[in-house]
Amino acid sequence: MDDTLPLLSGPDCQIGGRYEEQNSKDIVDFDPKGDAENPMEWPVAYKWSIVALLALTAFTVTFTCCAVVPIANRIVDDLDGAQSSKSASVLLVTIWELGEAAGPLLIGPLSEVFGRYPVINVSNILFIAATVLAAVCQSSSLLIGARALTGLAVATGVLSPAIVGDIFLPERRGTAMSFVQMAPLLGGAIGPAISGAIAERLGWRCVMWISVALASFCEVVFLSFFRETYKVPILRRKAARLRRETGNESLKTVFDIEGRGLLQNVGESVMRPMVVFLNSGVLQAMSLFGALVFTFFYIMSVSLPYARDIMGDIYHLTPALIGSAFMSFSESFCNLPLE
After folding, report:
1. Are the C-beta atoms of residues 93 and 298 closer than 8 Å to each other?
2. Domain 43-226+261-338 falls in which CATH fold?
3. Between 25 and 12, whose confidence is greater?
4. For position 260, what pLDDT does the model report?
5. Rounded distance, CA 26 to CA 251, Å?
6. Per the confidence metrics, is the pTM higher than 0.90?
7. Residue 326's CB: how many other CB atoms inside 10 A?
8. Is the dihedral of CA 20, 25, 27, 33 positive or negative?
9. Which is it for the CA torsion 284, 290, 294, 299, positive or negative?
10. 48, 134, 147, 229: least buried by Cβ within 10 Å?
11. Domain boundary assignment for the chain
12. Residue 197 confidence class, pLDDT cut points 50, 70, 90
């Protein structure tokens, strides 16, 4: 396996050749002298506003994910009473990650076919709906199902790097991504402590409604402020507009030359991540490292809060104090770049 070779080959990597096969006058592209429709040339302030919105959304997602950690046992006791079990408490915490692992396999490819704007907005709306379901459910099994759906609808993890790549040049992407990646660390640090304190005074459902409010605010901003950043749908809309204005039906983007159908495009987009993964030893090693980190995190997440005889009966820690123990994870991740 040679990681110096291109990971993908085939039609999608032959764009330059397709240019030569068509009359260049019929190919619609951004104006190299300056084009307001080109996301790379949008105002810097607007680009960083998008980064801030992505960071806030990432914070909301992590807060919603980690908020139940110190109070999961209380939630299950409240919903199931004498029939409560530790397995339900563990699933309440861990089922999220199963959904979040499956979601990107569909969300990412769909964003390459339909664009970032519709996919991220639909995902956010589904996220809000699933969180509302979690807030009003009356059984632990329904709550576990709602948590799985919430994890499945998380779009920021897979689309934030893509959106940053759409609007920033390669040498500027690192700074933008550092802000986006810092937000989940903050959410994971303070989320359990805040949720524990709120649950003690107002109940666990209030924690869920706070997550709904945060996610709803982010979605309102997305609907009113965010614009499509992926060049493929932008250029296709531009080509359609020019065809109407000029009457030249030969105008098309370089991405439309082969005339592939929707199902073929979706299928190729779904398979592309697997092809990249199987052909990159570096990516496989990083995936293994990420899996080990998440495994350790969830071992702690399902152990500390439910060791009632230690955390509660012996040390008399409240849910807020139990939640504060998770700040150490975020602090450690923040120190990684310094080591």
Report:
1. yes
2. Growth Hormone; Chain: A; (1.20.1250)
3. 25
4. 65
5. 5
6. no
7. 24
8. positive
9. positive
10. 48
11. 43-226+261-338, 231-257
12. confident
Contacts of 103 (CB under 8 A, 6+ apart): 123, 151, 152, 153, 154, 155, 158
- Residue 16 pLDDT level (bands cut at 50, 70, 90): very low
